[in-house]
UniProtKB/TrEMBL annotation:
Binding-site list for Mg(2+): 14, 40
CDD domains noted in UniProt: PcrB_like (cd02812)
Assembly: Homodimer.
EC number of the protein: 2.5.1.n9
Family per record: Belongs to the GGGP/HepGP synthase family. Group I subfamily.
MF (Gene Ontology): heptaprenylglyceryl phosphate synthase activity; magnesium ion binding
Residues engaged in binding sn-glycerol 1-phosphate: 12, 158-163, 188, 208-209
Biological function: Prenyltransferase that catalyzes in vivo the transfer of the heptaprenyl moiety of heptaprenyl pyrophosphate (HepPP; 35 carbon atoms) to the C3 hydroxyl of sn-glycerol-1-phosphate (G1P), producing heptaprenylglyceryl phosphate (HepGP). This reaction is an ether-bond-formation step in the biosynthesis of archaea-type G1P-based membrane lipids found in Bacillales.
Recorded superkingdom: Bacteria
Keyword terms: Lipid biosynthesis, Lipid metabolism, Magnesium, Metal-binding, Phospholipid biosynthesis, Phospholipid metabolism, Transferase
Protein name: Heptaprenylglyceryl phosphate synthase
Annotated pathway: Membrane lipid metabolism; glycerophospholipid metabolism
Co-factor(s): Mg(2+)
Amino acid sequence: MYDMNNWKHVFKLDPDKDISDDDLEKICESGTDAVIVGGTDQVTLENVLDLLSRIRRYTVPCVLEISNMESITPGFDFYFIPSVLNSRDRKWISGLHHEAIKEYGDVMNWDEIIMEGYCILNQEAKAFQYTAAELPEKEDVIAYARMAEKMFHFPIFYMEYSGTYGDPELVQAVKNVLKDTLLVYGGGIQSAKQAKEMSRYADIIVVGNAIYEDIQGALQTVQAVKQEQ
Ligand SMILES: CC(C)=CCC/C(C)=C/CC/C(C)=C/CC/C(C)=C/CC/C(C)=C/CC/C(C)=C/CC/C(C)=C/COP(=O)(O)OP(=O)(O)O
Ligand SMILES: O=P(O)(O)OC[C@@H](O)CO
Ligand SMILES: [Mg+2]
């Protein structure tokens, strides 16, 4: 399953959080379409490599969502690169990307690199504060989605509510304006019911914190989404 267009569900593992071998096996063998390694702070080369080597015991596709330069390493199937469209600071939209491409441009395999237009919608999320994001109105979110698809031709538009469950009506409204760009939803999914609800509108749902807070609930989100197909 290396074609993202067929993905419905992914788990996101935070390199800064501990996970037992037993739980990691459950996640990787759950039937999820991919496992993303990513977080906002304390993401180091050491904790990324540790997760990568442990996930590689399984066949599930493995993605690094890049949050800093220090933890970039070869060995992942894909590299997701966020560009925070609602940041006030150019650094998080294209600044660090410019620096990285200056350094790695000659060795980058663009077939593995997937750009994500991020819109961070939870003011309490670490990533919101970290990237100096500003809270958008509904019309702003729709405009960011259109920019992601039509201006930048990003393959992904990511509605990021990290830590809290978002607004399904807004997710639906965004879905209605996207044609080619995949809509990814992440934030606060803890149950099969929530997973089903968001996957009615989003192409791909992301389950993160529930892995660490309620592994059984997290695992149930996979089948919930697959049954909808
Ligand atoms: C040698 C080799 C393999 C080369 C490969 C070439 C390659 C892939 C080069 C990369 C080129 C490139 C353009 C890199 C980009 C560099 C970069 C640092 C860009 C900035 C990315 C960015 C905007 C980061 C900000 C933070 C962010 C949006 C992170 C996303 C993850 C996220 C929101 C997690 C949720 O937060 P979490 O930590 O889970 O919160 P809680 O703990 O509260 O749950
Ligand atoms: O951790 P949660 O709230 O599930 O969010 C998932 C993901 O969107 C975080 O980047
Ligand atoms: Mg998290």
